[in-house]
Amino acid sequence: MNLLLVRRLGRWGIDRSQSFTRMFHILCQACAAAMRLSFFKPAVALVLVRQIYFTAVQPLSIIFVASLIMGSVTVHYLLQLLLGLGAYEQIGAFLIRVMLHEIAPITCSLIILLRSGTAVLTEVALMKINGEIDTLHSLNIAMDDYVFMPRVMAFALAGPCLSICFCMIALLGGFMTLGYWHDITFANYKDRLFNALEIKDLIILITKSMVMSVAACLVALQRGFSVNRAFTEVPIRLIQGMMQAITLLIAVEILFIIF
Amino acid sequence: MQTLSIFSLTSTHEHLLLSSPDETTIARLKIMVVQSDFHVGMINDDLPLLANLNALENIALGSMYHKNMSLEACRRKLKPAIHLLGLEQVMDQRQQYLNRSQRLKVQLLRCLADDCGFVLLDSPPRSDCDILDRALTTLDAGVFLWICCLSSELDAYTSLGYAIMDLGLLS
C-alpha cells in the first residue's frame, strides 16, 4: 500500500518536474533565438507579426468590454465603501493598487490564456500530428526561431500592453459609467489617481502581466509538443495545459504577494 | 562491389528509379538526403505544406528563412515557374483548398525555390509521378526526379522510362 503510494508520488513528481524542465528549455531556446535577432528574418517576422496581431490586437474588443464591466463594478463599490468610511484620501491608492496590481494582470492573463493559449496549444499539436514539424526540420528551419520565439515574444508583449489598456479603460471608463453617482467630481477623481500612481505600480503591472502571459505561452507550447500522433490526445493535453497554466498563474500571484 | 552514395546519384544528372529490397534502405536513403548538402528536395505526404501559410508563403518559406528574401522578391523570382505551371490563381490559397495536382506542384516549387537540383519521391502513387514528370518537362529547369520504391513495386514505374538503380548497393 505504502509502496504504491510512494511510486505514484514519485511518478507524479517526475512528470511534473519534466514538464517544468521542458518549459524552461523552451524559454531558453526562445530567448536564445531573440538574442540572435532571428526576428529580422522575413520568415520569422511574418509569424511574429501574425502572432502579435492574434494575441495582442484581436483581443482588444474583449478587453474593452471586460475592463469596462470590471472597472465599473470595482470603481463603484470602492468609491461607495471609501466615501462611506470617509477615507477620501485613500481613493486613488486603493483603486491603483487593486486595478494595477491584481485585477488587470490576472484578467488579461486569463483572457490571453483562454483565447491565445488554447489556440497555440492546438496549433502546435496539430502541426506535430500533421507532420508540419517534420516539414520544418526537412527545410532546416529551427523550432526555436520559427515556433517558440515568435509566440513567446507575442505573449510577452501582449500581456503588459493589454493590461495597460485594461487599466486605462477600467479606471476612466469605470468612473464614466457608475462613478459619477458618487460625491466626487471627475477632475478630483483623476487627480487622486495620478497622485497615487507611482513608477513601482507600473513596474509591478508590467512584470506581473508579462510573467503570467509568458507562463501561459510556455505551458501551451510544452503541452502542444507533448502530443504524439493521435488527434484524441489534443483535448486531453488542452485540459491538462489549462489546469497547469491556471496553477502557474496562482503560483505567480502568490510569489508577487510574498515578494 | 560498387557502392552507391548520394554523390554518385547526383552525378548521374537524369531521372532515376531507385529500387530497394526493403523499407530500411529507403529510410536510410531519406536520412542521407536530409543530411546531405547536395540540395535534394523531398515531396512526400509526410512532409506536407504548412496549413497556416498560403501556397506562395509555403513555397518561399525556405528562401525567406535561409536567404533573408522577402515574400515579394520570392514571388518575382518564381513568377515564370508559377506561370508555366498555371498556379497564379492559387498562390493566395491555403493547402486545404488545393487539389492533389496543385499541391504537388506547390511542393515542387518549394524544392525549386530552395535551389534543389533533385527531388526524391518515396513510393508515390503512379499518378503523382505523371503530374510531376509533366511539370518538370514544362519547367525545363534542369531538375531531376528520383523515385524510390520497393523492388516488388518496380513494375508500376518502369513505363516512365527512367534509369533503374538498385539501392541495395547504398553505402
Which keywords apply here?
heterodimer, A: 259 residues, mainly alpha, 86% helix, B: 171 residues, alpha/beta, Rossmann fold, 5-stranded parallel sheet, 6 helices, 42% helix, globular
Description:
The complex is a heterodimer of chains A (259) and B (171). Chain A has 259 residues and is mainly α. Chain A has one domain (40-258). Chain A is built from nine helices and no strands. Chain A has helices spanning 2-35, 42-57, 60-85, 91-130, 132-138, 143-177, 186-196, 199-225, 233-258. The longest helix of chain A is centred in the middle third of the chain and has 40 residues, at 91-130. The mean pLDDT of chain A is 92. Chain B has 171 residues and is an alpha/beta fold. Chain B has one domain (6-169): 3-Layer(aba) Sandwich (Rossmann fold), CATH 3.40.50. In chain B, 42% of the residues lie in helices and 15% in strands. Chain B has six helices and five strands; from the N terminus they run H-E-H-E-H-H-H-E-H-E-E. Chain B has a five-stranded parallel β-sheet, with helices on both faces. In chain B, 38% of the residues are buried. Classes of the chains: A mainly alpha (259), B alpha/beta (171).
- What does the main sheet of chain A amount to? none
Report the mean per-residue pLDDT of chain A as an integer: 92
How are the strands ordered across the major sheet of chain B?
Answer: 2-3-4-1-5
Strand/helix succession of chain B: HEHEHHHEHEE
CATH T-level topology of chain B: Rossmann fold
In what range is the share of β-strand residues of chain B?
5-15%
* CATH superfamily placement of chain B: P-loop containing nucleotide triphosphate hydrolases
Calculate Rg of chain A over CA atoms. 21 Å
Oligomer: heterodimer
Helical content band of chain B: 40-55%
Helix content of chain A: over 70%
Number of domains of chain B: 1
Uncertain residue ranges of chain A: none
CATH second-level architecture of chain B? 3-Layer(aba) Sandwich
